[in-house]
């Protein structure tokens, strides 16, 4: 295992400590062991709190997206392992700003269980809580079992929508509703070119032959829809877009957000090569890309590969995505002058 | 070679096309073959133009940093190969906004030659041009040969200083002078954990044994100062900081910018683990980190490893680094609320 670390046991805690040291104006650590990341300053008493949590190893997801117009708090587990109940409960307490809490989490059994239990504890004290579960990975189950699908990079867009809605003083019910609406037409799929290594395991999660890739692999190395020879970037882009469209068709006049995400080792160069073909396909269909995001958003440490997320937008969703957000890992790629 | 591409020959051009398609409000392509990236909108007629250029494969460096408060134009070569004279001349013409042009480039022979020739052509037409050459890599030559050192991630900080100075209406002479001042106390060093593969070569630039790393390797795989077994993150951080300090000592009361940069495959997790120890060392020396940057700034495609850049700051330099910039790849990590 060739990684810059001190020991597998200290990997998560030292990385979180470094993240907070590097961005002292943005983050603080809470929870008994510092495994809750919270906003350094929260002035918006009275707004809906947005809380999340998940395994580590996906930075900037999950904890990196704590910030204004994004998350108020995030509970952090071990690498590829969900957060503890104590930390999730603490994350909810931090996010309790007096107008209820919206939990936005990926569709993983352990995460749902601890968020459910923590929510019950706070609800018993009179705090209103809603939970939105992101299940955007079309490769992980067919449409008839869509509720079992994994949550992948679509979580990032859900954070942005929920955070912007809460920041604009919407109620808990409205914030949850608009986030659910956004996810109804949000789909993702990934392709892995290599594995990654969980520090405590010390060896790659799986092996991919020198010439093999896996379409549809999950961000923890969950099995995909096929394993086979590497194809051209354009062929990969076509297959990924076709699979998303088979599940959630696009038509002329639609507006979409597109998130072209590196799983870790894949450089911007390759994302842009993928995007070039996608943009051409969507333009020929007269689908407008109103919100393109390119880069490292939901990673699997040093895994090589990319994921594609497409979300259909109406005026309300487009406006929430474009609303300002402040966070060390949120880049405004629109760059209006 | 396992990369998302269509062909090695189209790698650079398709990636640049995708970059411009993804950020249409920020970039446009110029030059006979689209190998010049320019700002989509430039309203600041009368300001000093900031131009750069270099090989491809380092995104966001070089061309990604075209934007307000950064570069006005950038000429792009092939992977790890400098831009053509024609494109550099075109980049200078684009950056000519009526108040002279500052070229900020890395210390590579080919780049210096074509920028020198292009500058002569424009100077013959009466355009004032200054050139600042970045040579921040302490591993590439001893102090007595510092003028031969390679330019690495310090180039990013030089772009930011020069761009902010130009944006604040300084003269060409002042913009060049403050950029040179910044570079006087800017030093970098990198450590590589793996090679990368130039698409047209089709195989890794070099081989590193499974347990070996190379301290001081250049961003194109140039030989470093030692090759040996992987060490702990804290030991790597100590050695990197010690080598920078041996060249440009820090003392209590100093303020610095710190850029902890992934060479590609190395995830944020590992950068934060490195940074945690660096921040502790600097705090114990009573050196203030006034400007921390963490992430992918100057990469070598999918190379694993990291570089550390430290720049001493005075009030003027701190203010120029903190000035707003708008570019798809510039993140404001300060996040004041």
Automatic annotation (TrEMBL), chains A, B:
The domain of life for this entry's organism is Bacteria
According to the record, the segments passing through the membrane are none
Query: Does the record bear NAD in its keywords?
Result: no
Keyword line: Kinase, Transferase
Q: Return the SUPFAM superfamilies for the record.
A: DAK1/DegV-like
State the Gene Ontology terms under molecular function. Answer: glycerone kinase activity
| Pfam families reported for this sequence | Dak1
Q: Which PROSITE patterns match?
A: DHAK
PANTHER family, per database record: TRIOKINASE/FMN CYCLASE, TRIOKINASE_FMN CYCLASE
Name under which the protein is recorded: Dihydroxyacetone kinase subunit DhaK
Q: Name the source organism.
A: Pelagibius litoralis
């Amino acid at each position: 295992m060739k990684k810059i670390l001190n020991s597998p046991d200290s990997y998560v805690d030292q990385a979180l400590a470094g993240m907070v040291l590097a961005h002292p104006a943005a983050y603080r650590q809470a929870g008994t062991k510092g495994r809750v990341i919270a906003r350094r300053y929260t002035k918006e008493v009275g707004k809906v709190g947005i809380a999340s949590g998940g395994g580590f190893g996906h930075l900037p997801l999950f904890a990196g997206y704590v910030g204004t117009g994004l998350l108020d708090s995030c509970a952090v587990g071990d690498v590829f392992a969900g957060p503890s109940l104590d930390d999730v409960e603490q994350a909810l307490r931090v996010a309790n700003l007096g107008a209820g809490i919206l939990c936005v989490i990926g569709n993983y059994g352990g995460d749902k269980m601890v968020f459910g239990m923590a929510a019950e504890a706070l609800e018993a004290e009179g705090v209103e809580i809603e939970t939105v579960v992101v299940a955007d990975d079309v490769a992980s189950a067919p449409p008839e079992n869509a509720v079992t699908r994994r949550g992948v990079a679509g979580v990032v867009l859900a954070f942005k929508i929920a955070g912007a809605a809460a920041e604009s003083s919407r109620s808990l019910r409205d914030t949850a509703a608009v986030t659910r609406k956004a996810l109804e037409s949000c789909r993702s799929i990934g392709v892995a070119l290599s594995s990654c290594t969980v520090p405590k395991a010390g060896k790659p999660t799986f092996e991919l032959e020198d010439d093999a890739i896996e379409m549809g692999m999950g961000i923890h190395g969950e099995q995909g829809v096929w394993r086979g020879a590497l194809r051209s970037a354009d062929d990969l882009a076509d297959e990924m877009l076709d699979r998303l469209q088979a599940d959630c068709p696009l038509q002329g006049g639609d507006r979409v957000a597109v998130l072209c995400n590196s799983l870790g080792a894949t450089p911007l160069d390759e994302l842009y090569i993928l995007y070039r073909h996608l943009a051409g396909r969507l333009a020929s269909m007269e689908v407008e890309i109103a919100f393109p995001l390119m880069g490292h958003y939901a990673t699997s440490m040093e895994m090589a590969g990319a994921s594609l997320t497409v979300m259909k937008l109406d005026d309300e969703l487009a406006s929430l995505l474009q609303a300002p957000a402040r966070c060390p890992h949120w880049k405004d790629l629109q760059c209006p002058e």
